[in-house]
């Protein structure tokens, strides 16, 4: 397998890949140590809130075809766009992404290698959000996808604990 600009080329193998990262449905790297746009270590009550990370949406893999769960749609890369390592329990952890140009983007979050939470549109617009109430300490792998195949968008991924922060 080769990697070009954070995008995987070739066919991903089911099971364990680079650095022990397991894959979901044989394609998405879950539980690894590398992400396209970095790793954030956050403690409950983190400041500044929201934490913002510049990302680019999209990829060659169709999340809808992976059977991850409700709302898991869009085109993503194998490697997550961001890894968040939460050091303690958070009463309300929210991820949301806003596309700079209004492109329809999606959001996939894997919590601690077990639960998938996904969203396409939220708060009456085309920007996605995922809420995780009573979020446990651990690793959260996050993908920002593009709803339409072959499109990308510059976007900002936000991580917040404040209910007033949303797209």
Description of the molecule:
- With 167 residues, this protein is mainly beta.
- The chain has a single domain (13-160), classed as Jelly Rolls (Sandwich).
- The protein is 0% helix and 47% strand.
- A hairpin with a 2-residue loop joins β1 (2-4) and β2.
- The radius of gyration is 14 Å and the shape is globular.
- The N and C termini lie far apart (36 Å).
- The model is unreliable at 1-20 (pLDDT under 50).
What descriptive keywords fit this protein?
5-stranded mixed sheet, 0% helix, mainly beta, 4-stranded antiparallel sheet, 167 residues, globular, Jelly Rolls, disordered N terminus
Which stretches of 5+ consecutive residues score pLDDT under 50? 1-20
Which fold name is given in CATH as the topology? Jelly Rolls
Which shape, going by the Cα principal axes? globular
SSE series: EEEEEEEEEEEEEEEE
| Biggest sheet overview | 5 strands, mixed
Mean pLDDT: 88
Q: Roughly how much helix do the residues carry, as a percent range?
A: under 10%
- Give the termini separation: 36 Å
CATH architecture: Sandwich
The oligomeric status of these chains comes to single chain
Number-wise, the strands total 16
Count of structural domains:
1
Strand arrangement across the biggest beta sheet: 6-10-15-12-13
Q: What is the C-level CATH assignment?
A: Mainly Beta
